[in-house]
């Protein structure tokens, strides 16, 4: 597969990114190392992690995913330079005091988190360092509305950028990115970077799938004009677009293998809404009508959209990895894309 550039950063990445948030929870270290090795063999050299992983987030597994990746780098000398490594600093606590206390994301918080990630990853530099969610209050993770009364921002965006700039100057990170951001946030980060000579945002990691195309409600134009790439996460809607739940009941399925069934914290977010699974089934049925596996249509949709720079896939086995990579190159017909749009027109974005 070809390389793509993230925005105007000059950073080249693979158009498929390996997401690792299940490593240390659903995936043990031995299996995770096998997946990492196979991904690199198959040309997927862009890997994404975060200090708060594994997911679902809990104190016992905080930092576990980065530690697993660090151990892989240690066990495979000379391979670090072949990988574009992305990680994230957690935003304000969101009920996770084991990461940090308080509601802000101070300069000291960013530095401490970055240095902790470097230690766990056993590397000198992180290629793309992202703010996992905004420091200010925004509708994210299933919330729909911006509420000014809840805004309690303590660290201005310029200060966050200045701290990231120091980390770049120190050689600890190479590029900066955002995640779970809004059009205002992207514009403000870019404006301040250009005005004050600070690091320019390379990418935004936001949800994008058949069940949540809210990116196309303004973020696509903003990022296109600003030269910022989309890293699309949850392209299979935590498995709802794989088709494996289609024969089950109307509520969140009871498969012991499914994250949405296994973890209450996942169900409590957008994925567990009663309207999401029925809409997923409509897309899955449409895929089968066109002779495609549901996951094939869902991933091909992301793989081929102009809005997407790289699609983040999360897998729990080598078989899943190979299946997701085999879908690369699948083209969806104009007729099928029109039918996809017709479902969206009627049901909008149930997992927004």
TrEMBL record:
<feature type="domain" description="NADP-dependent oxidoreductase">
    <location>
        <begin position="15"/>
        <end position="343"/>
    </location>
</feature>
<protein>
    <submittedName>
        <fullName>Aldo/keto reductase</fullName>
    </submittedName>
</protein>
<dbReference type="GO" id="GO:0016491">
    <property type="term" value="F:oxidoreductase activity"/>
</dbReference>
<dbReference type="InterPro" id="IPR036812">
    <property type="entry name" value="NAD(P)_OxRdtase_dom_sf"/>
</dbReference>
<dbReference type="InterPro" id="IPR050523">
    <property type="entry name" value="AKR_Detox_Biosynth"/>
</dbReference>
<dbReference type="InterPro" id="IPR020471">
    <property type="entry name" value="AKR"/>
</dbReference>
<dbReference type="Pfam" id="PF00248">
    <property type="entry name" value="Aldo_ket_red"/>
</dbReference>
<dbReference type="InterPro" id="IPR023210">
    <property type="entry name" value="NADP_OxRdtase_dom"/>
</dbReference>
<keyword id="KW-0560">Oxidoreductase</keyword>
